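Hi R.,

As promised, here are both runs. First protein below:
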Amino acid sequence: MLFDEQFTYKRDHMELWNKWMTLVNHLESACSRKKTFFWLVTVLIGFTIKFDFLGVTSIARGVGLLPNYYTCMLHLFNSSAVDLAQLQQLWVKLVFSQFSGIVRVNGRVVIVGDGIKIGKEGKKMPGVKLLHQDSESNSKAEYIMGHSLQVIAVLAQGLSTYFAIPLIGQIHEGVRLHCGQNSRTLLDKMFDLLIGLNLSEGFYFVADKYYCSGRLMKQLVVQKIHIVTMMKRNAVAYFPPDTPKKSQRGRPAKYGSQIKLFSLFDSNPPYITVPMPGNSKIMIEYCVIKLLWRPLGQLAQFVLVRHPEKGLAIVMSTDLSGDPLSLIQIYSLRFKIEVCFKQAVHQIGAFMYRFWLKMMPPKKRGTGDQFLQLAPEVFKQAVLRKLHAYHLFIQLGFIAQGLVQYLSMNHYQTVWKNFGSWLRTIRANTLPSEKVVSLALSRTYIGFLLDGTKQTIFKKFLQSRTDISQLQHSLHEEKLAA
């Protein structure tokens, strides 16, 4: 009986890491050499099980890396042996082919996009500029020096839990290399990110009020992408024009009378009372109206919503045939990307890079974009290499976060078995968080490293570069559990 218990524990002990490695192996073709891929996997492990937030040092410390190999890990981010564009495409393909529970509404995938501003103190870091933060939180300063990024994620569901799985993130402000870049806005760059996904199926793009732009929507409609967003308080729309009884001189009217959208709530249109999608305890009222929105130049669907706690809101979509309740549900899940950002910052550390450029003159606090039109070509290339290092670091952080979410959605029972601790908020129908999965993986890491049945070549590579004595506390816990 004791042997059976030890065998079951050993099998559960290895299952999480074996499933993790099975997914990671799909990314190998993004590396030109086997050793480069091994270092990439090592960095992903470090992101997953690290215990502090001190940049690459934390990743090396989490893996148990010997000090003389720290520089080798650091060089990975500046190496040309990793094809970042191919890595991003492989990750997107992996998510849509291997992850179960991808949310689809009206036959379309739900893609969520938003921006995030990360504070950076480095005076020799390309892309750092003065940024304004719109937030009601007292813990956030109104102005910071840092990087401004835009991120795209896809919604996935397991049990009653929704995750926003990060796909791609890039720094979209701070550096101007060419004169033509001055005319490209953040919305244009977000559109490029969306098109760069190369998805074979249609999708909804869900974003906040900042992305409620006619220029962006026209670009999306041409690509047969529908947007779901929220209208601002001062937004106006137009009724369709009246058809004249007799033909008149001049161009026919394109728009009818103008109306402020939020004034429609005062006209008491016929509302439908239904339970809130995803929360049957809350009853909401909604009404649908299709009006012409001038920035878009065509009809759009506006869903007027009365929420007992949140108040009045108007959800807008370019999908005229979309179910109104589905549109409400889609936008109600937009906040999951905010949860994704919180985990990326406080758990994974996807933005804790500290790479600086030695040849760059120090920037003063309060400065804006860095204009490099007249800079020497050598300096431009050095800035591009450093931005590549930032983007690779962020992408690997997102991949590590997505892998943790995969284990939570598909192997949550094994995660809870290896968690080895206690939580007050454990509920039967709720998946473990990224923190719980990381703790389970950290407890089983020493067993995975010493096990010689699978991934033996990579484990030999990692064993020769790690200090097992740093991980003895985990080995002691394993003996006690066995």
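And here is the second one, sequence first, then its structure tokens:
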Amino acid sequence: MHLLVPANWDRELILPLSQIKADIEIYGVLPTSMIGSGGSGPDIPQITTKQAEEYIRLAHSAGLTFNYLLNAPCMNNMEWQEDTHRELVQHLEWLSNAKVDSVIVAIPYLLELIKTQFPHLRVEVSTIAHVDSVARAKFFESLGADSINLHSNINRDFKLLKAIRSAVNCELGVLTNTSCLYQCPYEYYHNNTLGHASQSYNPLNGFYMDYCVLHCALSSISDTSQFIKSRWIRPEDIHIYQEMGIDFFKIGGRAMPTKWIINAATAYSSLHYQGNLHDILNNFSPKTINTTPNLSSTQIATIASPPKVYIDNQALEGFIDFFKKQDCLSGCSQCNYCQEIAD
């Protein structure tokens, strides 16, 4: 099994992950950069480029590969301005010299640029690129993608997953532990706010309000079926995706503590988890992030903490079978299955 596991830059994470019986690839990113990522900078520990280089060497010495995130969905057109384009290429040169094994992108132009100027780097397409059709998968493969993280909205659309697998030769992966709303209306906006908040050129110095997560939390609390509709995959159901030809499985949670990451990686590598499934999902708490040059550290104010959720993983045996025939995209309003499971 090939697992893509989040790195929170804690050195204590390396050894336990190296002892898991799976092909472990870890992924991470600096708190801020000119390109940015799919997570806000303040959620990520503050480290220097030198510390990042040391961490990558440590991962390699433990037999792990390292995947660096370049997956902000928008660079505010900085990629086309001469000075910032030069800085972009220098950033990619730093990654190459740091010996990262691969990078994850969401912007098609970055994929083409990297494949042209740094052909030795493997390039993976992010879930943020919303690859949710045969046409999109073929498009990114034609640009040179070595692998694609399929969008989590299609995690239970088995007819479509099989069609995409048949249509492309590149590696395909799925996000296993998403807690996002199914077909979330805030997703595009949320990804953009996080991407810009993690960019060094952000005129607000990383400030943002977690409007999107606040609404997602309220939606789930008021409609418990949303906890079930969310496109997570149980560790016990991974084999279904392996049999379809899915090559790797991504665990979300770069902002999570080391113990949590090890617990989630162990669960998915062993294909078994006893207890509360919600404990290994990548859950978010709404917050306000405020970073200014005059502060010695980032100020994070939690706005609201959702109530404790318990999803009995063992009670979900056979849960996934329903979706092998159900068309959720067109039939959700006539179906009550997820609400019945939630009840």
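A quick note on the second one: DSSP finds 13 helices and eleven strands in the chain. Let me know what you think.

Best,
J.
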